[in-house]
From TrEMBL, chains A, B:
<feature type="domain" description="FAD-binding">
    <location>
        <begin position="200"/>
        <end position="425"/>
    </location>
</feature>
<dbReference type="InterPro" id="IPR012941">
    <property type="entry name" value="Phe_hydrox_C_dim_dom"/>
</dbReference>
<dbReference type="GO" id="GO:0071949">
    <property type="term" value="F:FAD binding"/>
</dbReference>
<keyword id="KW-0503">Monooxygenase</keyword>
<dbReference type="Pfam" id="PF01494">
    <property type="entry name" value="FAD_binding_3"/>
</dbReference>
<keyword id="KW-0285">Flavoprotein</keyword>
<dbReference type="InterPro" id="IPR036188">
    <property type="entry name" value="FAD/NAD-bd_sf"/>
</dbReference>
<feature type="domain" description="FAD-binding">
    <location>
        <begin position="32"/>
        <end position="109"/>
    </location>
</feature>
<protein>
    <submittedName>
        <fullName>3-hydroxybenzoate 4-monooxygenase</fullName>
    </submittedName>
</protein>
<dbReference type="InterPro" id="IPR050641">
    <property type="entry name" value="RIFMO-like"/>
</dbReference>
<dbReference type="GO" id="GO:0016709">
    <property type="term" value="F:oxidoreductase activity, acting on paired donors, with incorporation or reduction of molecular oxygen, NAD(P)H as one donor, and incorporation of one atom of oxygen"/>
</dbReference>
<dbReference type="InterPro" id="IPR002938">
    <property type="entry name" value="FAD-bd"/>
</dbReference>
<dbReference type="InterPro" id="IPR036249">
    <property type="entry name" value="Thioredoxin-like_sf"/>
</dbReference>
<dbReference type="Pfam" id="PF07976">
    <property type="entry name" value="Phe_hydrox_dim"/>
</dbReference>
<comment type="similarity">
    <text>Belongs to the PheA/TfdB FAD monooxygenase family.</text>
</comment>
<keyword id="KW-0560">Oxidoreductase</keyword>
<dbReference type="InterPro" id="IPR038220">
    <property type="entry name" value="PHOX_C_sf"/>
</dbReference>
Amino acid sequence: MQFHHYGYVSGDPRVQPAAGVGIDRAEELPDEVDVLIVGSGPAGMVAAAQLAQFPGIVTRIVERRPGRLEIGQADGIQARSVETFQAFGFAERIIAEAYRITEMAFWKPDPENPRNIHRAAVTPDDPSGISEFPHLIVNQARVLDYFAEYAHNSPGRITPDYGWEFDGLDIAQPSADGTVPEYPVTVTLERVTGVGVGAGDASHAAPLEGARTGERRTLRAKYVVGADGARSRVRESIGASHVGAQSFHAWGVMDTLAVTDFPDIRTKCSIQSEAGNILLIPREGGHLFRMYVDLGEVPEDDHGAVRRTTLDEIIAKANDILHPYTLDVRNVPWHSVYEVGHRVTDRFDDVPLDEQGSRTPRVFITGDACHTHSAKAGQGMNVSMQDGWNIGWKLGHVLDGRADPALLETYHAERHVVAKDLIEFDREWSKLMATKPEDLGDPTELEEFYMRTFEFPAGFMTQYEASMIVGGAGHQGLATGFPIGKRFKSAPVERVCDGNPVQLGHHHRADGRWRIYAFADAAAPAAHGTALADWANWLREASDSPLVAFTPDGADIDSVFDVKVVFQQPHAAVDLGRVPTTFLPKNGPFGLTDYEKVYAIDPQHDIFELRGIDRSGAVVVVRPDQYVANVLPLGAVDELAGFFRGVVLPR
Amino acid sequence: MQFHHYGYVSGDPRVQPAAGVGIDRAEELPDEVDVLIVGSGPAGMVAAAQLAQFPGIVTRIVERRPGRLEIGQADGIQARSVETFQAFGFAERIIAEAYRITEMAFWKPDPENPRNIHRAAVTPDDPSGISEFPHLIVNQARVLDYFAEYAHNSPGRITPDYGWEFDGLDIAQPSADGTVPEYPVTVTLERVTGVGVGAGDASHAAPLEGARTGERRTLRAKYVVGADGARSRVRESIGASHVGAQSFHAWGVMDTLAVTDFPDIRTKCSIQSEAGNILLIPREGGHLFRMYVDLGEVPEDDHGAVRRTTLDEIIAKANDILHPYTLDVRNVPWHSVYEVGHRVTDRFDDVPLDEQGSRTPRVFITGDACHTHSAKAGQGMNVSMQDGWNIGWKLGHVLDGRADPALLETYHAERHVVAKDLIEFDREWSKLMATKPEDLGDPTELEEFYMRTFEFPAGFMTQYEASMIVGGAGHQGLATGFPIGKRFKSAPVERVCDGNPVQLGHHHRADGRWRIYAFADAAAPAAHGTALADWANWLREASDSPLVAFTPDGADIDSVFDVKVVFQQPHAAVDLGRVPTTFLPKNGPFGLTDYEKVYAIDPQHDIFELRGIDRSGAVVVVRPDQYVANVLPLGAVDELAGFFRGVVLPR
Ligand SMILES: Cc1cc2nc3c(=O)[nH]c(=O)nc-3n(C[C@H](O)[C@H](O)[C@H](O)COP(=O)(O)OP(=O)(O)OC[C@H]3O[C@@H](n4cnc5c(N)ncnc54)[C@H](O)[C@@H]3O)c2cc1C
Ligand SMILES: Cc1cc2nc3c(=O)[nH]c(=O)nc-3n(C[C@H](O)[C@H](O)[C@H](O)COP(=O)(O)OP(=O)(O)OC[C@H]3O[C@@H](n4cnc5c(N)ncnc54)[C@H](O)[C@@H]3O)c2cc1C
């Protein structure tokens, strides 16, 4: 955490000074906003938290609930999400209060006595150490609280406007001469009261409407982000179609406090018995657990019958499945019948597929609004957060004048593929979990699928294709452990200035900046005459260097690009006095040196080995959302300049 | 973190439900209080935070400042203090914002050119891995903030009463028939305004008095804790004498933002040059650093002259010492001339030394009020916090009816020795640091002393002597790695219920409870017939078992003693169904099982090996402040019962 350099910070350094429109933020919703986010679930809150780092932009987030979410909904937090929390500054706090999954147990009918279940297998949860962060379980409400805190403590000082329901929108068409109004989207909202704070609507359930007040208003926006969940009206308003199986699967979900002799009650379990299936998720705090009790496929002519399944029925069924163990339920703070199909929307913005590229999208949909699926792989909240981050930084860039609006077209292009893959994965996993053990080809098929595909539900299979913001794989060989298009996997290094062991990736906060990592050639640090020094001097001085071309006048030199170096030597062998000054910029009102850009290997865990980095050095470019954008040789300065000319606008 | 078992917790689980006197805490200072703490520095705040866990007790803390400390004072946080922060629930947060010391550099005159300094040595800061926690630097104000948060979020809901100055006190003597009034201490306070929030008074400096309002009041207390710093009036009011060298040493201290070519500006350094000495402490946030510039011994006839040393003079001297490097100071948010002698008060309570044991002490002094010394070993705040914790849990026990008032006599007995040792250590270290390099016997004497004595300043040399709360060393051989009287050094284990790798000691929160760790014999878990099972069954059932004798009726069985077991097997080999139920108590309104008391070894770091625990098992008793109170064989149930009969009162 870096602070004090703009003046002494006496209180919590997580509270950044307000800036721009955050200084005097209007209490009431203004008539014109740059970005209107609809819905304060995971997708909307991440987008808001990211945009709060762009205090030049007027961002508002409307939510029909009267206040924060209090209970229920999702709870599975994949490691990729914890990495994201780290970027938003709250990983260590949420880890401290969450349940951590280290193993998963598989219970099946006991072959000796199939009426009983027995523990058939236990598999480690992260067999390959895919992230330095754990796999967690914690209620969605707490995740939202932390993002809300970040949004509020960021320079833009964003807080949700509660009690407003999105009703519809209208996008102005270009006039005859092709001009578009500055605020082309007109949005209609209605004041609502009394929407349950623990409620929400899964895709098939009836919407829980609040008392309508009749108080309506319109406002105009440059862009709208629909993060309004499975029954999204924003999706409807842009005429996108939600495609997918009409068939729904229902689960009785209950957050439970109970006494039981089932020995794995604090372990994540898949329980398959002759009486049905349970997915058991231990929860934060050491006592609560969640059970998803399988209620089967919902027939077309069900007409909501499944939704009338009572809590007592769910509990009875759970006891049946757990036989010979029993569940003596003492308290159920939340339960629901959670029904979803596998659906994905055909497009994630307002531009019809056959018109893509012809105009700037103005309305985006994110999260459950554009993809729904079962809860079993614990994906909904996680994928939604990545949607929100993706659109958040892109809107920030465009509205801040850093990038061309064409950047916004990459949102659909990138996230639609992810959603389709997710639905595919979830369909397979759900089918497997619902299959009777005796019908499986191989009795270990389930746990093997789980182990084999682990990387997917952990959130690390996303690999964006080449685009204006993702380079080609031409030089991938220089850093094989940083696959282009995948998220930058952190590794240990040592900070030169103080010898502190740190994770290189953890300096990458969700501040909207690009990271450029220069992995040095083998030469000792020198101001001139090494491949690294030549690159660094070019970056500092050349007119086509992205630093020179794209950093606004008067701004800190690292305000758009945060450039770091990692030397191949241990930290004691790196003489700070010989490190090119590109990596020791002087910033802020006092012109103080930033010492946190110069790293050395951790001799016990050499990052060059761990990440397959060529000893001749390499440049790794990372996007604001932590995805690797490019890998280049130190010598390829023209390619680097060219890459950024395709992304960032000169200032 | 355990929660939800008393009902669903929707918000931050760190906020515990208010209880007892915390439910309707009076805004204004009441006329009668159980404990009055004077001063909200580290000693007072820790005592308040601990007492906030005893919501049956009316505790108030008065402070003459108008609000929180904002700047300045101490910043060195030894690992023992970070362990303490863990117990108070904020270690992970303060670590995230603090500077971490991993090395110390020693700069000396360059033998080639003694006018210049050169780096003579670099030593690791924690060569022996003495704690799983780091050595940190962070401003005292933030430490106080976190304790304030804990005190406020605890059941007792304690917050400081600002703007009150302690004026004096009077202790009622027993009447002719020996009775003592219920509230024997009458305290006079005065309302003050305008004391600087960044200010304070080191022992020799003029007190910074606020504007007196003349508004005075008295209140009556059962006990008073003087945590009012070096010029303590509470100390004065009990007639204790502050003994020690009259000679003072002065340092110009400045918290600095500067540009410099000194390469170790982000490393803790001892700098000895021909022009004088500097202790350099990098600070949190990556830019700020503190320099202690030696201003030498203060002559008897100085009459405050040294205090008139200007900031410019300090800066000029620093530049002289750093030659050939330069320091271009851009901003100094805080500076002070910090003068202290080495002093310790003869007694830490109101009972004269020759009357000790004859009556219950009513007034205690803690922290700088009873010991002052140089800032160079970074001890002041740390030792003060341990004082506060020590008196805090003891007052909690006595006022809660758990222990006899005789317990309070151990406060002086335990902490006075620590203070004396501290002064001794500091005297030696200060002398060494002030010695001209050419006058040292061996040029490496300084760094060798630092390395050799590392355990002391890290806070781990404290070892309490045998007393009513510290057993004899008779069975120490059963657990050589848990020295009786020293703090319980945590070690990794695995939680059986979920296989999570955890630190055994981290479950020990500052909740006022004793911990009893049963290290099992080698047998597999069984409900009967093993040494462990016999011990566990005795503990659950025998009339002289501390659990049976001392747990109040209707309270959770672990409300006074938290009993845990560690098996010698890996977690997968421990069948929860066979673990004695002593370790799986059912608690709270729903009678839910507590699964967080059963542990297994971590096969990679076997706690039995790491802590020298006998394979026949052992019982380790740990006090509420994390000090080991006793080590006993599993079979020695009479000794265990006897030990607690000497401490805890039957309910
Ligand atoms: C009842 C329920 C139970 C669930 N259970 C599980 C589960 O057990 N496990 C699991 O993994 N996932 C579960 N989910 C799904 C998971 O919560 C979602 O995948 C995740 O929250 C998606 O995030 P989101 O931001 O896209 O949408 P949401 O979290 O649904 O957020 C949408 C937000 O928009 C608001 N909103 C909706 N319409 C409007 C409007 N017109 N105007 C203004 N605001 C509006 C809603 O109030 C809500 O706050 C559940 C969801 C629901 C609703
Ligand atoms: C100006 C200053 C600079 C220091 N610099 C350093 C340093 O550089 N490095 C270092 O290691 N240590 C330093 N210290 C010492 C370090 O801060 C102390 O060792 C530590 O704070 C001791 O904690 P304490 O709680 O015992 O006392 P303190 O932190 O001194 O707290 C005492 C509190 O009591 C209040 N108080 C005093 N008298 C009254 C009264 N009559 N009525 C009500 N309230 C009262 C004070 O306002 C204060 O808040 C400094 C102390 C001071 C005062």
